[in-house]
Sequence to fold (230 residues):
Amino acid sequence: MLAALLAFASVFQPSGWSRADAGKQSKASEVASLVQSFYDQTKTFQAKFRQTQFTKIYNRYERAQGRVVFKKPGKMRWDYRSPNGQVFVSDGRKLVVYQPPEEGERHGQLFERAMNADQLPEAFSFLTGTGRLDTDFTIRLLDSRRYRFRSGHVLELRPREPSPNYDRVLFFVQIVNSGSRRAGVIKRVMIIDSLGNRNRFDFRDLQFNRKVSEKRFSFRPPAGTRRIQP
Fold:
């Protein structure tokens, strides 16, 4: 995977990549710049994901996995593997959420939400090209050892405009080197709300700038699906 990322980095070579000494601890602004410049060159991003949700009041973990695709501007789709089978789709204007039938039910449910009414499109706005690190967030570096991410850096992002959907986001960034050029690649995202609940996504098999059809960002639910109006 690292070799593939290095090959990608050597092809795109975005201007503005740092040449700082790799042996020195990067400052938050430097890491953020490496991330921003790399994803400025990224029009689509696809990966497999593992999700771990922690609900603090119940001290409970829930886990799921699936595939995700982002396409600028504003589009994303999350397909969860069965038996979960949920689908989250944004066409850049609205978010559609499909929940398959529970045990004993015949039909699932379909919800439509405004983009600013859900945690996922807000917290992942940077990856969909509708947000910027330098203008939308205050940024600082956390101790990567505390988060067992010694191979990279942990950026804490706090939205400059408070959101009811989350309090802060952590980007787990791996620095990829190609000769004298460097890029910041996001390998994990953790969303934390004001109650201390955590929503973590680990990405693998990352693919950048592959062709993605616009049809991926529309969803036709199975026959009989109940449509729930907001």
Residues 28-40 form the longest helix (13 residues). Confidence is low (pLDDT under 50) at residues 1-6, 9-25. The CA atoms of residues 46 and 69 lie 4 Å apart. The radius of gyration is 18 Å.
